[in-house]
Amino acid sequence: SQTIHQWPATLVQPVGSPLSLECTVEGTSNPNLYWYRQAAGRGLQLLFYSVGIGQISSEVPQNLSASRPQDRQFILSSKKLLLSDSGFYLCAWIRQAGNTEAFFGQGTRLTVV
Amino acid sequence: SQQGEEDPQALSIQEGENATMNCSYKTSINNLQWYRQNSGRGLVHLILIRSNEREKHSGRLRVTLDTSKKSSSLLITASRAADTASYFCATASYSGNTPLVFGKGTRLSVIA
Residue A33 in contact with residue A24, Cβ under 8 Å? Predict the structure, then answer.
């Protein structure tokens, strides 16, 4: 069966520090991978998505970047965090070109202080 | 950008009552999906309805889709306190690799 792992669950980081959130998928190959951010009580904002190794599409200009070094690994990074980067970050995968449901990780609550 | 817009933003009902949430979208879609999110957790897929379908059932869930009005509704019958969560609609375009676009969600509170 397929599973998705996202860590850490919570993170408190000072302004200006770097960030690395990791997401891995098991039990499937060549998935489409996504990073979403959710502000408190709000909907999901798509940040990045990837349809293959090394292929990253960015939806909004921001202080963040994403990388996909392996087929089932998706990393969200920042060199210097801003207060506005605080939020709930969710990783998700979809069977490529399947137009089927998305499977989400449990999320990372990031607080920048 | 967000395509789906859920209505209402928040809904509070008594246990046993039915809960209806609506979603409107703007562009042509391949399918529309509903997800549930418990507080502080990831989203869980509930049901998917394709553009050529008008109604779909899954347990206590009933989803309708009206492509002419670009709208969908999610009905939860005989609600339970455990149904308390946020519910999101998401739309998928005809291009398989285009990301799902989520609405802002409806926060449902079921009071025991």
Answer: no
**A89: its two tokens:** 């970050």
CB contact under 8 A, B100 and A99: no
For A64, list phi and psi in degrees, rounded to 5.
-120, 160
- Across residues A54-61, what is the average pLDDT? 86
Q: Is the separation of the CB atoms in A108 and A19 below 8 Å?
A: no
Residue A109: Cβ-neighbour burial (10 angstroms; 0-12, 13-18, 19+):
middle
Specify the DSSP element, H or E, that contains A68: strand A65-70
Tell me which amino acid residue A94 is.
I
pLDDT digits (tens, 9 = 90+) for B42-60: 999 999 999 999 999 999 9
Classify the C-alpha dihedral B79-A41-A10-A23 as positive or negative: positive
Nearest-CB residue to A43 (from B40, B97, B102):
B102
At A84, list the tokens: 């506005």
Q: In this structure, what token pair is assigned to residue B70?
A: 């670009």
**Residue B24 C-alpha, separation from nearest chain A C-alpha, in angstroms:** 14
- The reported pLDDT for the residue numbered B93 is 83
Q: Using alpha carbons, list the distances in angstroms from residue B94 to A26, A102, B36.
A: 26, 16, 23
Size of interface A-B (CB pairs under 8 A): 61
